[in-house]
Design a protein that fits this description.
Blueprint lengths: L1 H5 L11 E5 L5 H4 L17 H11 L4 E3 L9 H13 L7 E7 L2 E6 L3 H22 L6 H15 L1 E2 L1 H9 L15 H7 L1 E2 L1 H14 L4 E8 L3 E10 L2 E5 L1 H4 L9 E3 L1 H4 L3 E3 L21 H4 L9 H12 L1 E5 L6 H15 L4 E5 L2 E5 L1
Length: 359
Amino acid sequence: MQERQDALANRGGRTDAELVVKEEKDTKKEESSETNVYSSEYEVTANSALSAYLGANMMAGNEKIDLSAFNEAMDGNNLVDAWQEATYQNPLALGVKSASVSGKYMLIEYEQSKEEMLRKQEEIMKAVKDIVAEVITEDMTELEKEIALNDYLCEHAEYDRGALENAEKNDFKNVDKEFQDSFTPYGVLVNQVGVCASYAGAYKLLAEEAGLDCIVVTGYLDGSLPYAWNKVKVDGEWLIVDTTNNDNPYLFNALLNLPNNEADKVLVEDENYLMDAAIPEYEAVQSEKEYYRISQKYYGKDQIVAALSTGLTQDGASTLRTEYSLNDEQFAAIAQQAAENSGSELKGTYWMGVIYLTK
C-alpha cells in the first residue's frame, strides 16, 4: 500500500497530492450520496475510460467517486496511472490536494469548496475565450496559433517567485492559501501571475480553445526542480512548448518547439502526466519548427560570430541561436570575437545554444 501511495506524489511544478488506501469502515462521509458524472461540460483529456471518468468527476468538484463500474480500478497500478493522468491533463480540476481509496470509493480533497472551484472555472474559461478571440484569427496556421498563444502568455503573465519559495519551504507538499491560485490556470489567466503549473495549465486550455491538441508534461527542470510544461500537436507532429522559460527578455523562446532529444538536457520528464502506455505516442522528434530556425535566427558555429556582429552593429544587441551543445568555453570565444568585430565591450549570456549579447 505504501508503494502505491508513494507512486501518487504529484510534483512537476505542482504541490504534492497523494493517494492513501484506507481500511473499509462505516463513516458518515463515506455513506453519503454523491452524484457521479461520466462526462463534463469542459473538454476531458484522457487515454482510458477510467481516467476520463475521474477527470470529469474532479472537474465537477465531486468529493466521493464510485469506482465500482470500473473493474480496472481494482488494479492498484492502473488506478494510480489513471488518477495521475486525470489530475494533470484536466487543469480545470482545480487544487486537487489528495485522494484516498476506501473500498469501492475514491475520496478527493480539494484546496477550496466546490462552489469556489466552479466559480473560478467560469472565470478561467471566460478569460480563455476572450484571449483566443483577441489573439487567434481564422486564417492562422496551426504553427502561427501555437506561437501566438505562447507569446501572449510571455507578454501578459509574470512568474510568481513568492509562490515557488512558499512551495519549496513546504517541500512541495502544500502552499499557503494566498499562493494556491498560482499553481492553477486561474493564476496566469485571471491574476496574470503564476508558476510553471499555472503557465502549463493555461497554455493547454488556450491551445484547445484554438483547436490544437495539447497536453501538460511533468518532470524536473535541470533534473531537480519539480516542473511542468506542454506538448502541442502542430501539423501532425508533437512539439515542446515551455512558456515559463520562454518568458525571458534576453533568451526569448529558448524552449519553443524543441525535440525531446535536445529539450531533455533541461526538461527531464517523469512518467506521471499520462497513462504509461500512452507516453511514447507523444514524443517530439523533429526540430524544423524550432523557433530560431523558422525565424531565420539559427546559425552554425562557423557563422554565428558574423551574424551576432551584424546585429550588434545595427541594433546594439543581438539574440541568435547556434548548436544546442554550446558550452562555456565556446561561448566565451564567440563573445570575444564578436567584441573585437564590433569594437566594443560586450555583456551577455547563453542557454541551450541561444546567445544574447549587448554593448
